[in-house]
Amino acid sequence: MSLAVPIILGLTFLGSALASLPALAVEWGKRTTPEVVFSAEVAQPVVALTIDDGPSSATEEILEVLREHEARATFFLIGTHLQAETELAERILREGHEVGHHMMEDRPTRSLPQEVFEARFKAMDELLARFGGSQVFRPGSGWYNDQMVDFAAERGYRTVLGSVYPFDTHLPWTGFLSWYVLETVTPGAIVVLHDGPERGLRTAQVLSAVLPELRRQGYRVVPVSELLALEEMEMEAGEEGDGEESGDAQRE
Length: 252
Known about the structure:
Layout: H1 4-32, E1 46-54, H2 59-68, E2 74-77, H3 79-84, H4 86-94, E3 98-101, H5 114-129, E4 136-137, H6 146-154, E5 158-159, H7 174-184, E6 190-194, H8 199-216, E7 220-222, H9 224-251
Parallel strand pairs: 1-2, 1-6, 1-7, 2-3, 4-5
Helix pairs in contact: 2-8, 5-6, 7-8
């Protein structure tokens, strides 16, 4: 038996095991903190693409891939990176993408005392205001508590995590990462990938493989806010349809 067979079997097992972890976390999060967004309930084949931790030296390459495949994304930016790369942030917006709030520093948000979290949240909010502002917030490392979610909501932000997390912060294999995204994506999914000098280059490679296949399957790739607006529109249409059916039944 060639070495390729056990490697393939091992990666398949790893993928199945890893796929179950975010799914369990998403279900638990939806039950315990329904105000936090993990995915959207939509009928149309639409997914949101999110890219964390930019801008970086790799952001331009990511943008080129997105433009080539007519996909748009939400870039959850870190304040210290944004201060150093303001022109990249302007290009992100100019090319139809969305910017999100990912705090001032690249560290787990939940490790911060509440008063420190609030001060740094406000600092990032003020920084984003120079670029038109943002309505979506992702806590650092995906960890949060109710106080943080409430504080963000009071300032007009929805806390957004994701439902497709290919562990690209830990796994360097672009082939596996691409497979994972395509294997686990569903309508309404929110995909989480990362920017950065090395991770961003991997993300560009992953997107080069994933985006044409998603398009072949009929998916549109959009920023988070657009996906959530579509969810709201479909819900309103469904409620109107239910009302019309109820009225018809009463007239009969």
